[in-house]
Structures are given as C-alpha cells and as structure tokens.
Structures
1.
Amino acid sequence: MTKDLTTISRRSLMGAAAALPLAAAATGVSTGAATAAGHGGGAPMPKSRSFKLGDFSVTTLLDGSVSRDGVKDIFGGNASDEAFAQVSAENFISAEAAQFYFTPTLVDTGSELILFDTGLGRGGIVAALAEAGVTPDQIDVVVLTHMHPDHIGGLMTDGAATFANARYVTGSTEYNFWSKMEAGNRVGDLVAKNVTPLAEKMAFIEDGASVSSGITAMEAFGHTPGHMTFMLESGGRQLVLTADLANHYVWSFAHPEWVVSFDSDKDMATASRRKILGMLAADQVPMIGYHMPFPAAGFVAPRGDGFRYVPVSYQLMG
Ligand SMILES: [Zn+2]
C-alpha cells in the first residue's frame, strides 16, 4: 500500500516537473481569464478577522472599501510630485489612486463586547459583525475615536440606535467641538443627528481615562480637535488602536509631515503621528489603524526620518 502510493506520487511529481513550462503558461492564462470574469467566482472578501491579545479577543470588521483618485492632494499636500511618486513606486503602489478601507474594531474583554467606531452607516458594520457571530444588541460599549462621518455613520439605523443596549464613550474635547457647530456644517449636522440623541448614555473622557479594565484613552489631537487613540493591555501584551492617526499605510508613515487634507490641524496631526508611531516603533507594539488595508493590523518600523508599516502575518494568533 505504502509502496504503491510512493510510486504513484513519485510518478506524478515527475509528470508535474515535465509539464511545468506548459502548466505555468496555462496558469497565467487562466488567472487572467478568472480576473476578467470576476475573480473567485464572486466569493465575498472576508469582513472579519480575529486576533488574540492576552485574554482579549480583538476582531477587525470591514465596514466598506472604495477606491479614490487624486491621492497626492489628499495625502501629500506639501510633498513634491517627484517625492510622492518615488515613495509610491518604492512601495509598489500607484501615485494616482488608492484603495480606502473602513475598519471598526471589536474587543471582547471576556466580560464586555466593546466596539470602536461604527462605519459609514450603510449597513457594513452589522454585516461584518454577523460574520463574526455578533448581533448589534450584544454590544455593551460603543467607543467613538472621533466624529467624522465614516466613524459615527453606523450609530443610527432608520432613526433608532443601532446598538440598542450599549453605553457610549467618547472624548469630551471632540464632542464639545462638533456639538457646538452651527447648522450647515456637514459633520456637525451628522453629529446632531447621530451622536447628540445618545448623549445621555455617553461618558465623556479625557486623556488617560480607562474605558474598561486594560483599555486606556490616549489623546492624539490634530486629525480632529479631540481625536483619541486607545491602548489595549492584556496578559502582559499591548496593542494600540490608532484610529485615524495615520491614514495611509505608505505615505503617512514614510512622511508623517506630509499634509493630509482630512486633518483639521496639520501641524498637530504631524506631531501626534511622530509621537505615537515613534512609541510603537521603539516598543515594537502592534497597532490597528482604521484606514489600514484590511485586516488593518501591523507593526511600525523606523524608516529614515519616518516609519514603515509592516502588516501583521501570524504574530497575533495566540
Ligand atoms: Zn476616518
């Protein structure tokens, strides 16, 4: 039996080797055909990915993804065309267009389910949670890192709270800024519609506040006036939810000083990037960034005067 199998497998190996040039050519053709016809026969891209951090289970949830052009104006406002093109080429990406990702994160502490940000409000977060086996009514706490529409859009569904049993946590500086905005401001109007109705169930926090045991707020102002990041600590391990601290995995890391159109205070945003990315690089602490390519988890390495984002592979599996 064993002998037969060995013979067969040896024979097929030789056959495979002999046929290699043809097989390689055929593979090339079929890959191209599959891409043209819709790769994978329409199999959906995974929307949830779970990591272990001590006793915490940390799940990134893909709310949505879109491609955008005009990216030099968005991520390299003060960069030369040459420098922007060079960094893009060195990292094998286009300097003309980019894929955007929107990735809330769910932390299961063992006693609470804590959701960080809620997506664009087009149902993506509920679908991603369903893939992770969680229904919206199971969410105990919703944390808002800041109040841009792609983070608060999913708070309400048809005028009612999406997460019916949740309490809420957000930065006081952030809420005070947007809730006092006059009508007609796009973000202020959405805050009035989606956030203010929930204010009585909301805790307003400052830098260093504890959201839950092992989860601590760290201010990272600049992207918005009260933008917050969060340190997760469990079982002697750390991970930082960096939210919108750095919004492109190549450009914002390689050149933290490059002006990003989405940042409200450009200098403060750069200072926050340098400070927190520097800390993550020095301590080799992993991060999850809301707009990093899914599954949105990585490490930060020094690179010249800036940094390099290194996506997680299998480091956070257990
Ligand atoms: Zn955002």
Note: Residues 1-39 have pLDDT under 50 and may be disordered.
2.
Amino acid sequence: MKQVRVGVVGIGNMGSAHAVSIFQGKAGGLSLAAVCDISRSRREWAEAAFDGRVKIFSDYRELLKDGELEAVIIATPHFLHPEIAGAALKGGFHVLTEKPAGVFTSAVRRMNAAAAESGKVFSIMLNQRTDPLFQRLKESIEEGRLGEIKSMVWIVNNWYRTQAYYDSGSWRGTWSGEGGGILINQCPHNLDIWQWLIGVPDRIRAVCRTARYHDIQVEDDVAIYAEYQSGVSACFISSTGEYPGTNRLEISGSRGKAVAENGKLRLYLMDCDERELCRSSEQAMPEPPVSFEEYGEEETEDGHILILRNFAAAIRNGEKLIAPGEEGLNSLWISNAAYLSQWTGDWVELPLNEVLFEALLKERQEREKQDFSDALRHQKEEPQEAAARGREPGTSDEVYERRWSVRW
Ligand SMILES: NC(=O)c1ccc[n+]([C@@H]2O[C@H](COP(=O)([O-])OP(=O)(O)OC[C@H]3O[C@@H](n4cnc5c(N)ncnc54)[C@H](O)[C@@H]3O)[C@@H](O)[C@H]2O)c1
C-alpha cells in the first residue's frame, strides 16, 4: 500500500526524533518527504541527516504549498500548535500535533472545529495512552471491576528538571514562550490519562507555586483538587524540583482499588460492593474477600512510534485513533482551570471563563516582557543555535529520550 508522504514542522528535540524515526522506516506507513524549521542550524542538521533526500523549508506556509505532501506532524513550541494545525487541516492535510494541544482552550476549540470540517485524520501525540498498564487500568474501570469510582490520587513528582533544562531554550519556563510551566509542558500526559480514565472534572481548586525550585517565570510545583458532580474527587500533585520523585496513581472504587507505581499495576478487587458492607448491621467492618492481581514488566515499543504508526494506519485503512486530536482539549481544560484558580484564589467551574483566562495570561506575559525584555528573544533568534539551547549535538536528537516518558 502507498506510503503517506509526511512533512514535520519543528525539528528540535522532539520533531527531529519523529523525523528520524520516519526516515528510518520505523513508523510503518509514513515516509518523510519534508521538514521545516525557522532555525538555520536545524535546517543544516536536516540537510546532513537526510542526505538531501528530503525537502527543507523555513516557513510552514511554504511547506503547506507542497503538492506532494499528504500529512503534517507539528513539533513546534506549544503556542503554535493550533495555528499550524488549523492551517494544515484547512489546506487538506492529515495532522498529528504534539502535546499540549495548545495553550488556551479557545484556540484549541477553533483547531478542533477546523478538524471536524476537514474530514481529515487528526491525532495528537499522547503517547502514554499506549502504555499497557494504563490500557489495562482503563479496561478495568470500563468493565466495572472497581465498581463505582470514588476518588483518584496521583502524585507525579518524578518530572525532575535541572536549571540547565529551563535555560536550554528561551521559550522555556516563560508565560510568553510556553504559556506555563510543569502543567503545560510535563503534565499534559498525566492530565490526559487522568481525564481518559475518569473524565474531565466539574470544578477545580489549585495551588500553582511559581519558581519554587528554579529560576523561571512559571510554576514548577502544583497541587490540584478537583470534584465531579457525580461525587468523585481527584487530587493531583506534581513538581519538577523533587528528586528522587514518586509516581503513584491510586483509583478507588466501590468494589476495589487500583494502584499503579514502579512499573506495576495492582488491582485489589472485592466480590461485593463496599456500600453493601457499610449497610450491614455489624458494627465492625466485616472482612470482605479481596483478590489481588498484578501486572507489569511488559516489554513494549516506544509509545511515540506506536502513535506514528496508528496515525498512518488511520489514514491508510481507517484504523481507530489511539489519541484523536480533539481530545487534546480535555487536559487543557484541567491545566487552564488550575492556573485560573491560582490567579483568582478561588474554585473554577468547568468549562471555564476563557475570556478571563486569556486576559490574566496576557497580564502575566506583559509583566514578563517588561521585567525581562529578552524573554521573547527566541522569536528573533535566527539561527537558534543548538549549542545555545544546551543541546549536545548528537545526544538528544534522533532518539526518544527517557525523560519524555512517564517513569514509574
Ligand atoms: N510527546 C512527548 O513525549 C514530547 C516530548 C518532548 C516535547 N514534546 C512537545 O514537542 C514540542 C516541541 O518541544 P521540543 O522539546 O522539541 O522543543 P525544541 O525547542 O527543541 O524544538 C522546537 C523547534 O521548533 C522550531 N520552531 C519554532 N517556531 C517555528 C515555526 N514557526 N515554524 C517551524 N519551526 C519552528 C524551533 O526552531 C525548534 O527547532 C513541544 O510542544 C513539547 O511539548 C512532546
């Protein structure tokens, strides 16, 4: 069957890894036809890496005029995802965008509308959904094995980052360049798994602490408490400043609980509903029979490659998408609501007040511009030297780095 000719826009850390995987034939069904980056040094890298066999552009609008391309993968800084994806979808291309879907929900809703109108395949790189542990957990919840869900508690503070990481790109760790900190950069994977498992909450109260551990403009330490109209509650704690970190997800239901930690999923299952025991006339809790199942240690391929292959198969044979692009909006509702809760010092109901969110985000960007006039220098930087961004050539390009995965 014909390969899908794809162009990758943004060939920094992530985009170069996708481009190389496709070029090397690892993403069955996709063939690399073009790349695009505003940075001259990245274009020079591409010239050498792809032996002159791939077209190279400096402006994505030119790439979208290429008559031979059918699909576009977007791996630029977050703010640009909706703009480039929207233009590509309107231009008749299939699109796979990097996470997060964008920085604010109104832009992402416009992108989703363009996708719906286009009829093209639209996916998002939420590669953690391919993890067999999360898939088994989702199945267990959907099959009702945990009973009615009561609560979720997730501590994810193994997203440790050094100051050099934040210094490696002038867009990083700023409201203007990135639109936030750990919630918009590292946590979209976790926030997506959260909503994928138990849905988007109805209201959120959060504390997002700015620069607790690093010299940055945005938050690196977060605690979110969320509630659902159904009565379910969720607690989410994350930071990039604690080492060694913890990654423990616990979901409680009326018939048992699930715990995912250290690469294992443990299910503690009862053959009756706790609420029946609660109604019993016995004063002491009768000992419910609890069975125990454990899963883990399954060897899997890198989730990024699996999402690339799924994207290709969706285009070629109509395979069901693992991560439909429209679903990128859901985790953004959660992170935007957490910011708004911090900024207003109050609960935020979902869907949130987008106008207020954008006005308060803009305030922060303006303040940052005044205080740090060079915070936007990435827009003028040409070429954006790899060395200046802290990248050792050949070390972080071309491979999917361990730090991009949720480490249990
Ligand atoms: N799915 C994952 O596991 C994962 C992991 C890392 C990063 N990401 C995402 O990938 C995106 C990029 O992150 P990164 O770490 O590769 O950043 P990066 O800074 O290394 O790369 C971004 C690249 O985009 C280029 N760029 C900027 N504006 C552009 C434009 N208008 N047109 C074309 N190119 C442009 C930059 O020059 C740069 O080379 C982010 O949104 C990030 O969240 C996802």
Note: The chain has a mean pLDDT of 91.
